[in-house]
Amino acid sequence: MDVGLVLLDTGRRVLAINPAAVRMLGNRGGGPPNGPPNDLVGASLHDLHPPSHRAKVELLLAAANDPAAPASACSMMVALPDRVLVLKASALTPGGGAPVSGAPVTALVLMETTRLANAAPPSPSADPVEPLVKLPVEKGQGLVLLDPADAVYLQADGHYTKVHTAEGSFLCALPLSELGARLDPRSFVRTHRGYIVNLRHARAVERRDGRAVFIMAAPGAPRVPVSRARAEALKKRLAL
Asked: Fewer CB within 10 Å, N side or C side of the chain?
């Protein structure tokens, strides 16, 4: 299993990161996933999360530096569109060769798991997924409850989701995978591992460089990609 490792200083800034962690977290500068990690080294961990979620990160790091904290308080699971990241925080006792001599260092260990193709299906007795009547999104320092019908398309943003509407984009704390399971499947379809489209706002389908894109009815006519793996199912869905 590939293991990602990130070292943080007392100011919650990244001291060092290994290539596996870069691949799991991605480069902030938009470079290739396996590219140099220079854009993450020196970054504040809090800057990688929206303000409303920084308290959760701080609790995790505080527990890692508390010898009496249970192991569960130092760990968390992050749901992404096609995988789950398991994160463990641990305080390190610095020695003479520590990146910052004499200063405590916190290590974040990341491992990713994928859902197995032959995994057992959910039990029939399991609670049904609760459909979403409203989309909770952040606006300013509070939350706004959007009507799902106003969402033009949804885009994965790490383990959060950007909700694009005709009035602008908003951040939702729910992962794209959960939104895909809870939104009305008659209107919302997954076109790509990182996108869900509201078909009620789809204006046209266009082919670019051998691949299909949805042209959405919103300012700027945004284009949403369709992956080759999902193209055939979408053709049948739209009778194309």
From this structure: N
Q: How far apart are CA 92 and CA 129, in angstroms?
A: 41
Asked whether the predicted pLDDT for residue 35 surpasses 50, the reply is: no
Report the Cα–Cα distance between both ends of the chain, in Å, rounded. Answer: 42
Q: Would you list the DSSP string of 168-205?
A: EEEEESS-HHHHHHHS-TTTEEEEETTEEEEGGGEEEE
* Side-chain-facing half-sphere of 67: CA atoms under 13 Å: 2
59 by DSSP, 3-state: which? Answer: helix
Instruction: Decide: 93 and 81 in contact? Cβ < 8 Å.
Output: no
Which residues are 76's β-sheet partners? Answer: 87
- Kindly state the helix (H) or strand (E) to which residue 8 belongs, with its residue range: strand 3-8
Q: What is the mean pLDDT of residues 210-227?
A: 92
Q: What is the pTM for the complete model shown?
A: 0.53
